[in-house]
């Protein structure tokens, strides 16, 4: 578990850099993704996890496609699940970011991930009438026969 920002002064340099990278989606405005590249080039782990997820989760949730692309290029796991429920693809869907979803799928994100507490992304998109996302997911192999649970936390 990563330290909180207010205790960063008690941490090693690597822990502070991981903390900064983990909150990059809040600290680095879109268009300033060179900060993400610089941190990763200097050995900061690409997938530090805390209760908010990984930097990839944050980039997907905030529709930061350039940061997401950089993280994927440095080996971020597109299938890392947060709290047994949230995949980066699910968060990209929640942000309605088809651009981020495409980057994640290109990096082998599981389009059929079925959360124990919800529905697959395809079914959420169907329920919400997001035709462009439905078409894309079907094109890349999402299975329309996986329905998940009836009570979705996202729909």
Write the layout of secondary structure elements.
Blueprint: H1 13-22, H2 24-27, H3 34-41, H4 55-61, H5 65-73, H6 88-94, H7 98-106, H8 121-127, H9 131-139
Helix pairs in contact: 4-5, 4-6, 5-7, 6-7, 8-9
Sum this structure up briefly.
With 155 residues, this protein is mainly alpha-helical. It has 2 domains: 5-95, Alpha Horseshoe (Serine Threonine Protein Phosphatase 5, Tetratricopeptide repeat); 111-155, no CATH class. It contains 9 helices and no strands.
Order of helices and strands: HHHHHHHHH
| Shape by Cα distribution | globular
Span from first to last CA? 30 Å
User: What level of helicity do the residues show?
Assistant: 40-55%
Beta-strand portion reads under 5%
Low-confidence stretches: 1-9, 151-155
Our Rg estimate from Cα atoms comes to 16 Å
The CATH topology of the largest domain is: Serine Threonine Protein Phosphatase 5, Tetratricopeptide repeat
* CATH architectural arrangement of the largest domain: Alpha Horseshoe
Structural class: mainly alpha
């Amino acid at each position: 578990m990563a330290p909180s920002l207010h205790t960063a002064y008690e941490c090693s340099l690597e822990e502070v850099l991981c903390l900064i990278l983990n909150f990059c989606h809040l600290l680095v405005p879109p268009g300033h993704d060179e900060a993400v590249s610089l941190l990763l080039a200097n050995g900061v782990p690409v997938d530090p996890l805390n209760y908010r997820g990984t930097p990839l989760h944050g980039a997907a949730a905030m529709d930061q496609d350039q940061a997401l692309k950089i993280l994927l290029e440095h080996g971020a796991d597109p299938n890392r699940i947060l709290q047994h429920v949230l995949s980066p693809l699910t968060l990209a869907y929640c942000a309605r970011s088809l651009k981020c979803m495409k980057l994640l799928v290109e990096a082998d994100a599981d389009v059929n991930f079925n959360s124990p507490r919800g529905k697959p992304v395809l079914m959420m998109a169907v329920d919400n009438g997001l035709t462009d996302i439905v078409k894309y997911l079907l094109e890349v192999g999402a299975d329309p026969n996986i329905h998940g649970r009836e009570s979705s936390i996202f729909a």
